[in-house]
Amino acid sequence: MQILDELYSGKAKTVYKTSDPDRLVLKFRDDTSAFDGQKIEKLARKGMVNNLTNAYIMRHLEQAGIPTHFEGLLSDTESVVKRLEMIPVECVVRNIASGSMCRRLGVQDGIDLMPPTFEFFLKNDALHDPMVNEYHIRSFGWATDDEVAVMKRLSFEVNDVLKQRFLESDILLVDFKLEFGRFGGELVLGDEFTADGCRLWDVNTREKLDKDRFRQGLGGVVEAYEAVAARLGIDLAPGQAGA
Ligand code: TMP
Ligand code: ASP
């Protein structure tokens, strides 16, 4: 399989076409963005840490029976994935209130949400990813009702699997964002699962181990991502591709 020209460059990843029309290469860059691209910095090693963390999580989800686009590592910063037809909504599951939910609803940061809650957002930086509901998704034809049901079911399954996995490493999975796409007749998990797109807190101290460190200027961003990887048992030594 040959890497061909760039298909699309996002805020933190670049996507390349390949000689296989059904496969893409994701390159995880060191760029880190917050506030819909208003704050951007390059953080050394982040691309590698996120590529290897994403590979670990996607494999873990596959083993738990959740279909994902992940096919394999190509290099320390690149992975091969299935080419999906992406659904333009983001699925957010929350176990603990934080971030936009607290601003929107005036609830206290850190309270447990029982049961966990679910929100859809439209993927649109220019509009600051507004929250949308299932009626918007239906009226604008972004996804069918069946697809909405599958995205919700798979998002909660991901939550069950990863909440447990992170807890085994003394990490609270506070919330996370997923994106899905169509492959063949099936909906599969796309994009990435890394500390860029979720909130992870130390179970004892509630220290933030995710992108909130960058958003809030707390420093130690990549160090926190590396700590998460280390706790999960991910080997970050260069040359993991093919491992
Ligand atoms: P929020 O609190 O800003 O709504 O975000 C909830 C979680 O989803 C948080 O872990 C960050 C993640 N997220 C993204 O990574 N990208 C996005 O565009 C959105 C809306 C959320
Ligand atoms: N939506 C992500 C965040 O909340 C990325 C971004 O804002 O650019 O930080």
Largest sheet, if any?
5 strands, antiparallel
Task: Estimate the mean pLDDT confidence.
Answer: 97
Determine the N-to-C terminus distance.
Answer: 18 Å
In CATH, the architecture of the largest domain is: 2-Layer Sandwich
As a percent range, the share of strand residues is 25-35%
Low-confidence stretches: none
Shape: globular
Helix content: 25-40%
How is this structure best described in words?
The chain has 243 residues and is of the alpha+beta class. The protein has 2 domains: 3-84 and 228-232, Phosphorylase Kinase, domain 1, CATH 3.30.200; 85-219, ATP-grasp fold, B domain (D-amino Acid Aminotransferase, Chain A, domain 1), CATH 3.30.470. Helix content is 29%, strand content 33%. The protein has helices spanning 46-63, 100-105, 134-139, 145-168, 212-215, 221-232; strands at residues 3-9, 13-18, 23-28, 31-34, 39-42, 70-73, 78-82, 85-86, 89-96, 112-122, 131-132, 171-178, 180-183, 186-189, 198-202. The strands form 4 sheets. It has a 5-stranded antiparallel sheet. A 5-stranded antiparallel sheet has the order 11-10-9-12-15. The chain has a 3-stranded antiparallel sheet with strand order 8-13-14, with helices on one face. Helix 1 (46-63) packs parallel to helix 6 (221-232). The longest helix is centred in the middle third of the chain and has 24 residues, at 145-168. The radius of gyration is 17 Å and the shape is globular. The two termini are 18 Å apart. The model has no long low-confidence stretch (mean pLDDT 97). Thymidine-5'-phosphate is lined by residues 90, 92, 99-101, 121, 129, 175-177, 197-199.
